[in-house]
UniProtKB/TrEMBL annotation:
<dbReference type="GO" id="GO:0004144">
    <property type="term" value="F:diacylglycerol O-acyltransferase activity"/>
</dbReference>
<keyword id="KW-1133">Transmembrane helix</keyword>
<keyword id="KW-0808">Transferase</keyword>
<comment type="pathway">
    <text>Glycerolipid metabolism; triacylglycerol biosynthesis.</text>
</comment>
<dbReference type="InterPro" id="IPR007130">
    <property type="entry name" value="DAGAT"/>
</dbReference>
<keyword id="KW-0472">Membrane</keyword>
<dbReference type="GO" id="GO:0005811">
    <property type="term" value="C:lipid droplet"/>
</dbReference>
<keyword id="KW-0443">Lipid metabolism</keyword>
<dbReference type="Pfam" id="PF03982">
    <property type="entry name" value="DAGAT"/>
</dbReference>
<dbReference type="GO" id="GO:0006071">
    <property type="term" value="P:glycerol metabolic process"/>
</dbReference>
<keyword id="KW-0319">Glycerol metabolism</keyword>
<keyword id="KW-0256">Endoplasmic reticulum</keyword>
<comment type="similarity">
    <text>Belongs to the diacylglycerol acyltransferase family.</text>
</comment>
<dbReference type="GO" id="GO:0005789">
    <property type="term" value="C:endoplasmic reticulum membrane"/>
</dbReference>
<keyword id="KW-0812">Transmembrane</keyword>
<keyword id="KW-0551">Lipid droplet</keyword>
<keyword id="KW-0963">Cytoplasm</keyword>
Amino acid sequence: MKTLLAAYSGVKKGTGSSILSALLELPSAPWLSKSKLVKHLQAISVLQFILTFLALGIASTVLLVYLFCTDCWLIAAIYTAWLIIDWNTPKQGGRRSTWVRNWTVWSYFRDYFPIRLIKTHELLPSRNYIFGYHPHGIFCFGAFCNFSTEATGFSKKYPGIRPSLATLAGNFRLPLLRDYMMSGGICPVNRNSIDYLLSRNGTGNAVVIVVGGAAESLDCAPGLNSVTLRNRKGFVKLALEKGADLVPVYSFGENEAYKQVIFAEGSWWRQVQRRLQKLLGFAPCLFHGCGFFSTESWGMVPYCKPINTVVGEPITVPKIENPAADVIDMYHTMYINSLTTLFDKYKTRFGLKETDKLFVN
């Protein structure tokens, strides 16, 4: 009983060491060492993230509909009324929670891979920024951990800067999932939401856009260093219109988390993936990781591969209400060159060869 109370106390205080200490007081087993217990806690923290984003929204919607058919219909009605009243909040800066961003579970999440945030230059709180995040990977583990939690110490490394990771707007139409995402500072990747953050929310805002999007996730696999960027110019135009500086970000190891079957362009399977991507907003990838208890088996758990997210040097962008096409092209080229330079500078430090190149598609 004392052990359970100690564990509960650890959860309330948010101290992972208290939780771990309480668990270690349980009767020991020869097959469960401290290191294995910690690793299992880390794997569970990653699995809850995956299952939350895959199933929470759908499960909550089904539950809400079901409650309307029961004696608890009033609870469903009250929440639905609140949902209608609160509908535009995601597009107006959201509702981030410092408490949620500092949950202990994110420290376990970080340490599973592990994930690190590398700062290369100072960012001024008097400016707004658009971070271009590359590559997408399967689940954007690096983007989520670094910019939607405080596990890697973003606020300490960049004081005065508020990161907002932009993701599919459709996620914010699903009950509970929308609130969960907003608590981490996640926002819809649409014009209204980003306009609000960069024009009506003061300065010190950093909107993180995974530029390659769902299309890029179809080409991510271990050993591949390619980004979908050549024809992605919308974020550059937006930066010019708002006078927000562009910051290239590259996560070494993001593509190593899962193994994926990549179908050739023009093949029947690739066409199916493209059509479903347009219909659903995300790409149905055929991938696998390892099992929960063994790295030799297949499963949903990602491989333990380090993810090192390097935040590059900001590109100063002037404010131009209606930027001409040649101006957009010029800053787009500057961004590509800056990203390539960032990749080349740090690639050998994080396990790549000097001869490895970044392919911009």
